[in-house]
Design a protein that fits this description.
Blueprint (H helix, E strand, L loop, with lengths): L1 H9 L4 H11 L28 H23 L8 E2 L7 H9 L1 H8 L1 E3 L1
Parallel strand pairs: 1-2
Amino acid sequence: NVLESLLRLLHPLMPFITDTIWQRVVPLSALKVDAGASIMVQAFPEVEAAKQDDNVLADIEWVKKFIVGIRNIRGEMDISPNKPLNALLKNVSDEDARRLDAAKAFLDKLSKLETV
């Protein structure tokens, strides 16, 4: 079911590939469609508000802002994106420290950081 939903989301970007895979996946999913149906006429998956976690969304936004901040500094100071950087954070709250620990692998990889 997860793959089937992802295929519906990706269909506008990769129509031929997703339709081919979807035709093989849909009989295995819980979705009930006609045998000749196409992914083109299927609705986009809908978000279930009860399953959203606002804390996780806030954490992801924090990670995105951190990465954009590092990339902006690189651009302003004309530092190559391939050069590893050392980052120094000041006035870090407990929440920031928790987010930093949880997302360290992503931040190191996406921001090319050597140390924080």
